[in-house]
Every structure is written in C-alpha cells, then in structure tokens.
Batch of 4 targets.
Target 1
Amino acid sequence: MTEIIKTKNYSILLQNDIGHSIDEFIQEAEYSNVFLLMEENIMEYCWPILKQQSRELNKAEILLLEPGESQKSIEIAHQLWNTLSQYQADRSSLIVNFGGGMISDLGGFVASTYKRGIDFINIPTSLLAMVDASIGGKTAINLGKYKNQVGVFNPAKAVFISMEFLNTLNKRNLLNGYAEMLKHGLISHKEHWNKLLQLKELQPKDLIPNIAQSIEIKKAIAEEDPLEKSSRKSLNFGHTIGHLLESWSLKHDKEKERWLHGESIAAGLVMESYLSFKQGKLQKKDFKIIKNHIQKHFPKFPITPDLLSSFPEIIFQDKKKNGKKLNLTFVPAIGSFLINQNCTIEEIKKALIYYKENY
C-alpha cells in the first residue's frame, strides 16, 4: 500500500515500509545533522521496526524522553535546545519526530524555535498522531497544567505514516485516535461519520481503510485556513470542554491515571453537541445519535464537585476565548459546523451537569 497526499507545503506518505522513502528524503536534503526524538516506550515497541527499514535513521543522534504528557513543557524544550546546541546543530539540521502527538507537538515546537527554525519531519506511531497531531502545522507545549498555551504554526517538511505501528497499540490508544476521526466526520463529512459508525471492531484492520479520509479532511481544512482565523476553528469542536477536562486530569490525576487526549475530547464532543442542541442549532435526534455512539465506546469522565466549582479558572485560559466570551464550534447537523458560537460559563456548567447525570 502506497498513498501520497499532497499539501501546498509538504507531502504525507502512507506506506507499509517507509524506511526507503525517509532515506531518500534525508539524502536529497543533505542535512548536516539528524536528530531522532522519541519516548522510551517508542524505543521499545516501534524503533525495532523502523530500525530495520531506514539506514539514515540508524546514523541519527537519538534524543530520548520519558513517556507522558508531562514532557510537553518549557523545561523539556529548554533541555532539548541545550542538547542541540551541545551537538552543534545548525540551521541545516533535521529533527525527526518519531512517536505520538506529544512528540510531534513538542519536537515541532523545538525545531521551529531553535536558531529561528530548523526542518522537522513527523513519523507518527499512534492513530491520534496519524490523523490529527502530525498534520496541519500546529506545534505547542503546555504552560504548567494548561494545554498548548505556547506554540507556533509551522508545518513539517514531510509526514511518513506506516500502518504497521498501529499493531503496537492497545484498544485504549486506538480509541484515543478514533475520537478525532469521529470529530472529522461530525464537522465535515457525514459519509465518513457513517462509515465509522458501521465498524464492528475497532481493530487496525478495520480502521486503516478510513485513516486516509480523516487525513484528507484535516489536511483540507488546515490548508484552507492555516492560521486558524476562520474555517480551521471547526477542528476545535469538542476541544474547549475536552481541553478543560484534559487539563483538570493533568493537574489532579497521577501520571498513569490521567485521561488521554481522545478520551477527554470524546466527552467534549458529547457536551458541545449538547450545547449545539440546547441553543437550537442541532436536532435532538442527531444529538442522541452522537451521544449514544460515543457512550458505546468511551468511558465516563468523572465530573466532581471540585471540577464544577473551579472549571471557570481553567476554561478562561482557553486560546479560543475572546475577552470574557467563549467562542465554541457547534454542529448544526452531522457533517457541518458553525464557528464563533458564543457560550456562557453557566451554559458550560449545565453541559457538565447534563453529562454527569446522563452519560
């Protein structure tokens, strides 16, 4: 299987054996240094696969991180900048982001800011990174416990996707990416949504035929509005409340108990669909379809009294707010979107309570 999805600035290659294509890319660019950024778990489960395929990456300097969202911080970015400097990395160097969404976010940010910008490529190993994080040029780190507060828009020079890495994922991590695929269907492509609903099993073999469609949806929206001034805001559907929940978990839960991005976004999709319905934008039957399908696959996020009383402080750190107003994306029907929809704190609270009592 080989499929190339072209964007204005780079190519996304879907191929089982990506090593030869990566080697060709690196050789043609004649980089002075190549740095391979990954987490320890990727070193254990995915690097043995890629190591057999790519000669050039076997020559790279490996930058190894502990696993987890806590690595996506200014402290780790600072360490990586220092390491690049110690290796005398120059403007002709390349960072290879090999891993999930955390790695592409962090590595893209480090590359985009080191010496005012060096090249980077993404090799996503998680479903979430394949269909979302590695595509579209968003790079970011967290600020304390708040998600993606510091970052730049800067696309990778190329994205290399091997479906073979999906076989290293457990069901929870497949669901993590499935949430973003559902979002793509909800905001832009009813047929894609319907195909995802018809999947009997969420195994790699079932998901693979739908991955290219999700990538196409994300690519088209990001390309039309690269700096998120208009239509790209549609990709934020489910993310205002989803990031609130993810930030809450990041702050209050132990590392191994923290909710994954996709799990938080799935809850956000339900609650922001509920708000779409309550504001008269979405029909009740469509809201029920959305809620019931997500409830079938995703666990319930615990809405605690502490969360209900203190969520405004977190949500007003959201990048999408405008002054004291919260700007959300709503769905008026499955397969379409409305951006810049005003929502009050009280409405958000009602959505949290609805979810707590009815999910």
Note: The chain has two domains: 3-167, 171-358.
Target 2
Amino acid sequence: MEGPLAALEMLFEPISLMLLCGGTAFGIILGALPGLSATMGLALAMPFAYYLSVEKAMPLLLGVYLGAVIGASIPAILIGIPGNPNAIATVYDGFAMAKKGLAGKALGGATVASFLGGMISLAFLVLLSPQVARFALFFGPPEYFALAVFGLTIIAAVSGKELLKGLAVAVLGFALSLVGLDSMTGVPRFTFGSIYLMDGISLVPALIGLYAFAQVFSDVESLDVFKQIHLLGLKGIKFREILLSPREIASNLRTVLESALIGTGIGAFPGTGASIAVFLAYFRAKRKRPDLGSGVLTGVMAPESANNAVTGGALIPTLALGIPGDSSTAVMLSALIVMGVQPGPLLFRDHIEVVHMIFISLLLANIAMMIFQLIGIRFFVKALAIPPQLLMPLVVVFSTLGCFALQERISDVLIALAFGLGGYVMEKGGFPKAPLLLGLILGPIAEPQFRRSMVLFQGDWTQFFSRPISLALFALTAVALLSPVLRRKGR
C-alpha cells in the first residue's frame, strides 16, 4: 500500500491537481483545432514540464494527452472536419447527427464513450502491463505486416457499396505513401527532384486537405448543409439534451466495451497507432449495425471508445518495456528519462510510486476530461451561431495555421491544398475519401515491415504463413473480406 498512498499524497497537492486540470483543458482546446494533435500539445507542454518534478510533470502531460484525444471529436461532429486522423471515423455519424440537430447528443455520446474506453484501458494497464507487453515482444516484421494487411479490411466498412472505388483509392493512398526517401536505402522515390517531397507526404496536411479544404470547397457551392447546424447554434442546447438516457447507454455498452478492447490491444503494439484501432472498431460496429453512417449514436461511440482506449494501451509497452506505443507516449517517455526515471522492467521495482502516480493521474485525467467536455459542449455548440459565410473562412484560416504549424513549411500548406482539390473531385465522382488516408496510414507500416521480413528470412515468403500470429491475422483478413460476399450470395 505504500506505493499507492505515496502517489496519492503527491497527486493531491494543489499544484499537481491544477496542472492536471489545466493540462486537460488545454488539450481539449488544442485538439479541437484541425491539424493540432496530442503529440503537438505534448511538445508544447514539454518546456514547462522540464522545470517540474516528475510528480507534477506527469499529471500535466497526461492531462494534455487525454484532453487532445477527446478534443478532436468536437470539430469532427460539429462541422465534419476531424481534429486529427484518429477522429475520421467519428465524422461519419457524428456530423450526420449534427445535421439532424443532434450535435449535443453526439458530443455527449463521444464523451461518455471516451471516458468508458479510457477507464477500461486503464484497468488493463494496471492489471496486465507486464503480461501484454511481453506478448507484444513476439511481434516481429511478419506480424506487423500481417496486422497492416488486416487493416485493409477496414476499407470495406468505409467504402459502403463502392468497394471497388474504395480499393482503387486505397491503392492510390498506398502509392502516395511511397513518396520520399526510402526508409531502408535512403534513395529518393517519386520526388521529381523536389526537396519538399524528400520527407514524404505527411498525414496531417493530407487530412486537412481531404476533410477541411475539400469540405469548404463543397460547402461554398451550397450552404444549405449548414442551415440546420447554424439554427442549432442560434438556439443553443440544454444540458439534458447532452446526457444519454440509461437505455442509450445500455444499448451501446457492449459496443463500447468491444471497441475499448480493440483500442487497448492495438495500442499495446508499438507503432500501430489509434488510426487503425478506430477504424477496426467502427468496422466491427458496422457489421452489427449496417445503418451506421446515417447519423447513429453507435457510430460515434464505437470509434471514440477505441480512440481513448489506445491511450492506456500505448502506455503498456512504454512503461513495461521502455518502448513508446505511439508518438505521444514517445514524448512522455523522453520526459521520464530526462527526470531520471528509466521506463522498463525495472521501473516497477525502482520507481513503483511513479507507476502508481501515473495510474492515478490517468484516472483523474479521465474524470477531468469528462467533466470539462460535458460543461464545454454548450459553448462549443454556441460557436455554430457564427454565420456560415464567416465560419467557412475561419475554418480555412485555422486549418492553414494547423497545417503550417506542423513543421513550419509552406509546402505542407500546398500539399493540403492539392489534397483538398483532389478530395473535392473525388466527392463529385462518388469516390470515398477515407480509403486514401488509410493507404497513407497503412503504407508506412506494411512496406518496410514486408521488406524487413524478406531480408530477415532471405526471401522466404512462406515465413508469413508459418508463424502462428501472422497466420492468424491473415486468416482473419480472409474471413473479414470474404464474409460480406458470401452473405450476399446466400441471399
């Protein structure tokens, strides 16, 4: 009991609680700005964290981390523009609900699902950190490649009835992910001599282009889509419109639990990220509810539960192995090291009070996130009272700033503009946009892992099917892709 009591004593100092609450509020605001991710928020908070002791720095960083995760759902639901790539799946039903005048209900559902997903992943973090982390060590290049291939099953969910168009767009996204320096040889690929393409096409400019600029291009043709949303902003919402009924919670509880398990599991494998988890959770929910995409609460709660569950999952390898689960936990890992705390197996022996403090900080940050988000929803919706003629230029300005702030390069803004024009053309042609981003997400995982596998096993491709985990993932991929076809034939 000495560890938990010492952690509680450190955390319940007024300054620690203020830093945790302030970090959470800052994270929510930052996450709501398109293009500004949790990683960027942590990077902004790091200079302050370096001057703090570990018992004050970690509550601040964890608050920013969780706040930015839920903050990205705000623009995704209200204006159909995800704050970061992890909120793309939330757009499908969240924005559709907003257009029906149910923005408050959608934001309330996202908040509750995020809280439950975070608490479930925290339970796994506390109970299974060493065990799950040890299992993750069995993942070599073939397993990561198989996991990326399994991610292709998501395309069926986000493409709707246009599966062939979705696959074609995903192939284009995968091809675009090859632009830049070869990760293994350093040779430039498809850069056409441009130094701006040496680093490849960043995901954030592509996201902003496809979902912010393309959305604006479509909306300026007709602002009718925002009439209902604008009226909702003028009218405002009452607090009871935000809260979910016991029936709504009960009917979605199983989906939230399954999505949280998906998020925790995916987050525990270093380098996979929340983007895969949220789409897998959405795909899982859509198999049970084919009407997802038309403005269904389940379509908001499933990805948001998985998204926040990744936070606890990503901390499992970070704390137990010293291997960051994603870019955000990499920032927190560096903060711990600078403060003289070395993550890894010995962390649970030498700094058990720090481990317990992180666990309790996550618990309090989840509670603070839910409270601040529920209180803030009425103010977020009030922002929709801005006339569409002014709202659209503001979206362009903030999206451009978020794009430029990534690496302070004008080339990122130009890439976003190009993707915006491409996304506008895709919408007119009936091509789904999400598979393009999926190709950009899965490409940097699949291609290097495939090549490493071939080098490691001297070109023996049978190794992909002789290892139990990779074989199981390929089998799941086949089942997921073939089952819709077989069901249609059965009818």
Note: The mean pLDDT is 80.
Target 3
Amino acid sequence: MDPMAFSLSIILSKALESEREAVLAALREGMVWINLKLSNTIIV
C-alpha cells in the first residue's frame, strides 16, 4: 500500500436530488477535511 494514498468515505444523512447536489456535498466534506488538516486537528 502506498503510504501517501488515502481514502475518503462520505456518509450522507439523506438522499440527494441530483448529481450536482452530490458533487457539492462531497466538495463541502472535502473542505471540512482540508480545514481540519490545516489546523492540525488531524494528522495524516
């Protein structure tokens, strides 16, 4: 396994109406992850 590889799973609390909504939800989750990483809340 590549030590630089990572996996991100997103669990949503509801079904989304469109592919656009799904992409936006994933982008929001990604931004939260980046903010946590930058604030050293999580260490990867």
Note: The radius of gyration is 13 Å.
Target 4
Amino acid sequence: MASRGRRGGAPAREDEQRREEQTEQQAPAPQGHVLPPPPPVDYGVFMQGLVQAMQTQAHTQAALQAQMEAQALSAACRQEGEMEQYLEEKKASQKRPAATFQ
C-alpha cells in the first residue's frame, strides 16, 4: 500500500479534459448589454490625424526650443552687462588713491 494508484475508471488525462469541459459549460453568460463591435477604421482619416498630431508636436517643440534659446540669450546678455559693470567699478576703484590710515 506504499503507492496509491488509480483504481479502474478513466485515465488522468480524460479526467482533466472532463473537468475543463465542465468548467467551460459552467462559465456564466455575460450579464446586461453587450457592446457592439467598434466601427471600422478609415486608414486615410487615421493617417491624416496622425500627421496633423505630429506636425502640431513639431511646431510646439520648435516654439519651446526658440523660447528656451531666447531665455538663455537674455540671461547671457544680463550676465555680460553685470560683468562689464563690475569690471568698470573695479577699474575705477583702482584709480582712486587708497585712504591711508594714520
């Protein structure tokens, strides 16, 4: 009695098939309204929309790039002006005689 074998009846494979068939038969039917299939897609219209979306994205990207470059240029010009002012003030301070402390 060390091994437990199957006694008569159908082989294991047939039992599995029978269980699968019963499960399929017991699957509940969809409740409520069943949605109709989606309408067919017009490939030409789809492609036009896709091209338009890509063009819009490209224009938006170009506008953002131009705005970013303008901001960077503005910051660089401001920094250059600040540096020029600093150098002028430094030069002027070097021309003045230093106050001597007595």
Note: Residues 58-95 form one domain.
